[in-house]
Amino acid sequence: MISFVNVDLELGNKTVLKDVNLSIQPGQLVYIVGKSGSGKTTLLKALYMEIKPVRGEVSIGGYSSSTIKRRQIPLLRRKLGVVFQDFRLLEDRTVYDNLAFVLMVTNTRQSLIRDRVMHALEQVGLAHTAKQMPLNLSGGEQQRVAIARALVREPIAILADEPTGNLDPDTSLEILEYLKKINETGIMVIVATHDYELARNHPSTTMLIQGQQLCETTFGDCSAGYRPVKPSCIPGTSAEGKSNAPERL
Ligand SMILES: Nc1ncnc2c1ncn2[C@@H]1O[C@H](COP(=O)(O)OP(=O)(O)OP(=O)(O)O)[C@@H](O)[C@H]1O
């Protein structure tokens, strides 16, 4: 499970997000939408503990931002797969080697590496590209390789930061379909995007960052509008179970 409880996040001296509360359960797919500069990347960075909250607590994969030691951060990150807008593939290595590299740095057995790499490529329909160089693939295919690379360590969650930002609308939908299929295997998927319409076409829990606040809606229930999430929604907090009636915005 992932949770944010009363979290404030700052960059430099600027407060980017204030009093964020969020709970994501195993198997959930969540969109974080918000305009450019609203703080989506900042929120994801708090999840992989590149940014520490100035107030409140982020919990993920059994670690807490309040107690995690610096040396434990790489261990947390091994449990997470991160996907970026610009793919970030190693251009001088084959598709296979891009994935294998991730496992080699953690001393995974060679026989296991091959199985894991090919399985991850199969999950994005690209097993046949294993020997190709990334730049010989289309943008959409390169992003699918990046998703496979995120999968190869069998993460508890995939964090995707604007994964469709460099892609045309049809390819963007295709990428979201792959992320949805991966989510159906039980992996939490968190997609940050400024493309509200894209998220809208894929009904699921959608969080909106607006004026430093994180608000929630579920498409199909838009009549309730977006509501700020209160700590009462976060299991395990002292306020759990108290009312969090939707507020019309
Ligand atoms: N190092 C920094 N110091 C101060 N402010 C920063 C720093 N880095 C980013 N910011 C500001 O923090 C805010 C949030 O940035 P963030 O990258 O999280 O937004 P975003 O929603 O991901 O935007 P985009 O969709 O354009 O990537 C922005 O206003 C940005 O200008």
Automatic annotation (TrEMBL):
<dbReference type="InterPro" id="IPR003593">
    <property type="entry name" value="AAA+_ATPase"/>
</dbReference>
<keyword id="KW-0067">ATP-binding</keyword>
<dbReference type="InterPro" id="IPR027417">
    <property type="entry name" value="P-loop_NTPase"/>
</dbReference>
<dbReference type="GO" id="GO:0022857">
    <property type="term" value="F:transmembrane transporter activity"/>
</dbReference>
<dbReference type="Pfam" id="PF00005">
    <property type="entry name" value="ABC_tran"/>
</dbReference>
<dbReference type="GO" id="GO:0005886">
    <property type="term" value="C:plasma membrane"/>
</dbReference>
<comment type="similarity">
    <text>Belongs to the ABC transporter superfamily.</text>
</comment>
<dbReference type="GO" id="GO:0016887">
    <property type="term" value="F:ATP hydrolysis activity"/>
</dbReference>
<dbReference type="InterPro" id="IPR017871">
    <property type="entry name" value="ABC_transporter-like_CS"/>
</dbReference>
<dbReference type="InterPro" id="IPR015854">
    <property type="entry name" value="ABC_transpr_LolD-like"/>
</dbReference>
<comment type="function">
    <text>Part of the ABC transporter FtsEX involved in cellular division. Important for assembly or stability of the septal ring.</text>
</comment>
<dbReference type="InterPro" id="IPR003439">
    <property type="entry name" value="ABC_transporter-like_ATP-bd"/>
</dbReference>
<dbReference type="GO" id="GO:0005524">
    <property type="term" value="F:ATP binding"/>
</dbReference>
<feature type="domain" description="ABC transporter">
    <location>
        <begin position="2"/>
        <end position="236"/>
    </location>
</feature>
<keyword id="KW-0547">Nucleotide-binding</keyword>
<protein>
    <recommendedName>
        <fullName>Cell division ATP-binding protein FtsE</fullName>
    </recommendedName>
</protein>
